[in-house]
Amino acid sequence: MAGFRAMIMVAVLGGATALAGCTATKDAAQSTTSAQAPQENLALTVSPADRASGVPISAEIGIKLGSGTVDGVDVRDAAGQKIAGELRSDASAWVPTAPLKYAQRYTATVTAVGSRTHHESKSVAFTTMKQPSQVEGVGFYLFDGQEYGVGMPIPIEFVRDVPANLRAAVQKRFFVTSDPPQPGAWHWFSPTQVQYRPAAYWQPGTKLTVRLGLKGQALGGGYYGEEDKIARVRIAKDKVEVKVTNHPKQMQVFKNGTLIKTMPVSLGKASTPSSSGHMVVMEQAYTYRFDTRGEPNGGYVVDVNYAQRLTWGGEFIHSAPWSVSDQGYTNVSHGCVNIGPGNAAYLFTVMKVGTPVTVSGTEVKLAPGNGWTVWDMDWPTFLKGSAVPVASDVANAVAYEPYPKPKPSPTVAPSTSPGTAGNAQLGTPTPSAS
């Protein structure tokens, strides 16, 4: 959001009125002067409507202008106390810093200025809704003051489905500020799951402030948001990435683009294969209990150390002392990435929640939404999941490409050696020795 001087570029039409004849009377001259400098009409409209009642406490002060720019917004409660807030970057609305209060009267005054320094103001008074009987919270996976890896998305999870016709209004109440600024967007993976990512990995050291302004926001089924949530977090100063391959069965750890460690792994066996795709660490636990009783191919209970979750389906990187002899050679796990105890402990010193992890070469593809899968689709596909039209600068941002297309092979000139003229076929591979 920008300050009160955010500009809206508009075309202002004006001009002198032509008069018939060569001689003008005094009245005609006065009419000409008036026609040359008409009173500017900024066509300012403000919402909510004047005297509206039952207004949601998540409401913003909507602003429309035919011409000119917003010069100021003043919102006060019934006691005359000024309410803090900011304009959206496109000056389409003024957003209160905190939700309004239930069953309270407010007055909003918007002032606009035109190209001839003409000012126009409009005031509206409105009353907010009573406190609803049905409210619910949302799952928010950023925690104030924490530090995350460069691939950390902003995942939000709802208790019940958000109807399609409400998703745009809900999404508009998510506010993300990054320092330094980076373009990003939201993607609805399901009616209950929406995630945000920047176009490319966060720059190391980025500071993030995220506000979910959902208190009093309609979520569907007669339910409203219970509270606003805010988190101020930091991205780690080093870019750490992890790449796991099935052929060979190994893990590589990169720090700021440099390979710093390689270790053997054992992945999921044929009946319970690991997922191939671009994931991030979702949680870390020094000790984690796997209880698979009642699950297909499960039925066991075991405690593991140095566990790092990759999917909702239960795929982790973790210490597996029982499979050390298989690591690097044979896949024996139930879908997890097995590593030795020493290597597992080492990973806890360099990885964080939000560290990107890519697994490749296995029998199955990562399912969208099975974890924080924002990096497993290209940018245009990701943008299609937004409930709100995406700005052109965001759509055209330089983005991370999870599955880059191979570069075309150089064109080979046809051979002119004796006996082969006319038989060369461009693009046909040369048979290799068996």
TrEMBL record:
Domain L,D-TPase catalytic: 240-360
Ranges where the record places region Disordered: 400-434
Biased composition (Polar residues): 412-434
PROSITE patterns on file: LD_TPASE, PROKAR_LIPOPROTEIN
Keywords: Acyltransferase, Cell shape, Cell wall biogenesis/degradation, Peptidoglycan synthesis, Signal, Transferase
Pathway participation: Cell wall biogenesis; peptidoglycan biosynthesis
Family matches, as Pfam families: Big_10, YkuD
List of catalytic residues: 318, 336
Extent of the signal sequence: 1-20
Gene3D superfamilies: 2.60.40.3710, 2.60.40.3780, L,D-transpeptidase catalytic domain-like
The protein's name in its UniProt record: Ig-like domain-containing protein
Species name: Hamadaea flava
